[in-house]
Amino acid sequence: MSIATQLPLDVATLRADFPILETTVHGQHPLVYLDNAASTQRPRQVIEALVDVYEHAYANVHRSAHYLAAMANDRYEDAREAARRFIHAKSAHEVIFTSGTTAGVNLVARTWGDANLRPGDEILLTIAEHHSNIVPWQQLAERTGAQVKFAPVSDDGHLLMDDFARLLNERTRLVAVATVSNVLGTIHPLGEIERLAHAAGALLFVDAAQSAPHMTTDVQAMNADFLAFSGHKVVGPSGIGVLYGKEALLDAMPPFLGGGSMINVVTTEGFTTARLPAKFEAGTPPIANAIGLAAALEYVEQVGLERIHAHELALTQYAHELVADLPGMRILGPAPEHKGGLISFNIEGLAAMDIAELVDQQGVAIRAGHHCTMPLHARYGIAGSARASFYLYNTREEVEVFAQALRSAIKMLRR
Ligand code: PMP
Predict the structure, then answer these.
(1) Which atom of ligand 1 is nearest to the CA of 129?
(2) What structural domains does the chain harbor?
């Protein structure tokens, strides 16, 4: 690690980039935004990139020869290159712009899945997956007669690797796992998962929604066959995301949506398919959002992903320290040194939603519910949980405000 990566973040300066953080909540409380696992906020640099493209460089891409079209096209393809660099892909052809992680999973399920799975084949997930990384596989299983299996997690939120290994067999065609659980915060042992999955002859789909914003992503180092993430969780626009796939796999897959841009030739008899990446980008793509995403990726790269991760880890540890001993507190997931920047919890006898509503009265934005992980909550015998999640612009003071708001909420609800 270089000296620069060890320096703490200059959070005050970073915060000044995010206009929305100046919001006053309910007319009197400074906003404490701790819902970053759901969606982060955007810095001026991203907002300005969006404004700039609409003011100076907007036209449809790919199909026109005029000045603005060439400009928009260049910026759109530059954005693809920025995304390629961000995930360390070999080729920009392996970077498909989608609307987000969910769209990436669905694309692979509908194309690779429909073309390759047969009755009796298996897809191995973990019980901690987001619905986005469960339901498209269940739909695929319904269409093909394949089966979805779930590797279990321990009481403290670690993936049980012996069980995972036992569930893998010669019928397993795909392993699909998140790098970081959006509820437990657990950082899954991707290296071992990759080794086991590939040794069993399965492909590896990585759901990087909760890691791409917070730690370095290197698709070649992790030897992922597919990987997806969302722009809105990495200070980028919503409605844009990236699907990575190894070129040979993407080449062999049938197209997903049909329409403009994804074709080579269309006749009354049929069509031929365009080359990568156009083959998977039918219709007018989210042009400005892709350009905004590139600005976002450059922003977090400049801040430094290792520093972001270290900062969040420190905040998460501090949050654990401040709230772990509150009466009735049950924190989900592993000890703070083993996880990403979030803390999910329940307070015995109290509804998570009531807690979230009361801390919101103090200006603290957290989330309550099942967080799109119903099977995981069922595993722990609970319907939902509350979750505070941190990002590069959060401060120790905000963690203190959160802890204090939580204390008051508990007192009020127990009255
Ligand atoms: N996977 C994980 C782990 C997530 O946390 C999320 C978003 N909460 C998703 C997938 C889905 O992302 P999106 O809604 O942006 O498609």
Answers:
(1) 3
(2) 3-35+304-413 (3.90.1150.10), 47-301 (3.40.640.10)
